[in-house]
Write a structure and sequence with these properties.
OB fold (Dihydrolipoamide Acetyltransferase, E2P); five-stranded antiparallel beta sheet; alpha/beta; elongated; Rossmann fold
């Protein structure tokens, strides 16, 4: 991932550069001694990650974060102070590292950035998959992803159930799973994929969607629980 180090202290930038150079997944594309320099650079050259100090002359790191808007890369604050932590996380930064920064702590923060990048990528892919086309009786039919309740594998065919009817597709469940937005759909059994938004209730390991019971295999139970907003 492309990274910019932002710190008004040259020794601090040097130390951060040395530390980051040990992480193979990060490429430092620039160093900035002020938040304003970083602001101007980001609007010319989009990057993935800012390693950003907070207390700097002129614009602070907090002010920069507030002003980046939709062009904002992922941000890890790197500061000698602990008293900005609450303000930082209210801005939805990925992490808050207190100097001197240990290598293991930086790696943990980078892992969080990777997870956030994957989540963002998944959201973008989901937008691109708001509908699918299926071949039904020789006719290509458009089906909105939000209209799908669940899918059931039956040999070499898959039944795609909507609230109005079902369509039979000559395909494997896996091939259809790859075309659906993973943020909305999940395989819960070797023969079933469900729309998470359409689940009415789950009782004794069985999902109910529109009055239809759908079994949850043990292999998928933990993953399903992690996807649900359990209280």
């Amino acid at each position: 991932m492309k990274c910019i180090i932002v710190d008004d202290n040259p020794m601090a930038r040097m130390a951060m550069k040395k530390l980051v150079s040990q992480v193979k997944d990060i490429a430092i594309v620039a160093e900035c001694e002020s938040a304003m320099d970083a602001y101007n650079l980001i609007h010319k050259q989009p990057v993935d990650l800012l390693l950003l100090d907070i207390e700097m002359p002129g614009m602070s790191g907090l002010e920069l974060t507030k002003n980046l808007g939709p062009k904002s890369p992922f941000i890890i604050f790197t500061t000698a102070k602990t008293n900005y932590a609450v303000d930082a996380f209210e801005l939805n930064v990925v992490d808050y590292l207190v100097k001197p920064i240990e290598p293991a702590r930086l790696l943990k923060a980078v892992d969080r950035v990777k997870e956030a990048m994957e989540s963002k990528k998944e959201q973008i892919e989901a937008i691109d998959k708001e509908f699918v086309f299926i071949r039904d009786s020789g006719v290509l039919k458009k089906i909105n992803a939000d209209d799908i309740l669940y899918l059931e594998a039956m040999g070499d065919y898959v039944k795609v159930f909507t609230s109005q009817k079902f369509h039979i597709v000559h395909a494997t469940l896996k091939s259809i799973e790859e075309k659906l937005p993973s943020s909305k759909f999940m395989r819960v059994h070797r023969s079933y994929i469900v729309s998470l938004n359409k689940i009415d209730f789950i009782e004794e390991g069985v999902i109910n969607i529109g009055g239809t019971p759908i079994p949850v295999a043990d292999a998928f139970r933990t993953a399903l629980n992690s996807r649900l907003n359990l209280l």
